[in-house]
Amino acid sequence: MSNFQLLHKDCDCAARQGMLATAHGKAETPFFMPVGSAGAIKGITPQQLKETGTNVILANAYHLMLRPGVDVIEKLGGLHRFMAWDGPIVTDSGGYQVFSLSPLTRIDDDGVEFASHIDGKKIYLTAEIATRIQNRMAADVIMCLDQCTPFAVETSELEKAVQRTIRWARQAKGAHTNADQLLFAVIQGGTDLQLRTHCTSELARMNFDGYAIGGLSVGEGHENMIRTVTHTAGLLPDNLPRYLMGAGMPADIIAAVRAGVDMFDCVLPTRNGRNALAFTEAGPVRLRNSTYINDNTPIESGCDCYCCNNFSRAALRHFFNVGEMLGPILTSLHNIRFYQRLMAKIRHTLKNNEFSAWAAEQLKKYRQFDQPKYDEGKTK
User: Fold this and answer.
1) The whole model's pTM is what?
2) 92 partner at 20 to 30 Å CA-CA among 70, 79, 132, 327?
């Protein structure tokens, strides 16, 4: 029986609205997950996070395996106790680090050898080990180990990565022992639609609890991403959740929802927030800019976040320029709330059969903004 209930499908596109049930509660889809790779959303308390409208968060098994270690997390009662978060938690397996830490990795068909980015210690990660680590951390949704490749990699290397991803998914499924967790497979294949079809077909036969679309947001650009997502999502079963990993530009999210995606995560709201860049519906706001030195307005008029209700752009600019930690915290809070307001609007328009027209207008609006200004530190 699927833990995902499809509640509404758009009449004019593949967008859908549903409910994902986990051991720590239900979450309406589509939803966005802030990223807490090392066990915390940087600078944000769990209570503050809840006030932004966040229901589900993402942690990273690779980073937590290194510090504090799976033994520590298990002894302390699992990730929910450790992170003081009583809602659903998703963990990435470490597959993305195969890409992001590629100078420190050696890959073969059996797994990945990492040289720890902390102390250089050698760590060997197989599909079975990655699954058992996530079983022990007790997240609600866990990922199979996969191989993420750079954009425009040689076809032969892309084919190897797809075959390894399929093989590792089969091994992960065999190693999965925690019945309270949902296990998602990750679909790879770059922007090669034939390889995406092959990978999706093979993984769908294994009957996972959900499917993630990985290997995107690595330099391929919006059009290539959405073409690949649209193709891949269209091959997946309707009754299971679909997760686009690591994509976080507002235009990417809206277009991917239109293609039928249910779940998203990205570091963009918090990483950009720490670097004085705020998201607004009118475009990016760089808070260190001298134009805000006497600006008594909030980051975004009409935003109901704690930051916008209490602080001016001038105050935030001052905090950043003097190195006061409150600046990054407040801007991160605003950015997360911006994303959660965006997702709430998506769900609202889906329920009211207004999504397609609304999405077309939003995509037109967001595409006019200067993308690189929003794209500071896009990787996970």
Assistant:
1) 0.96
2) 327
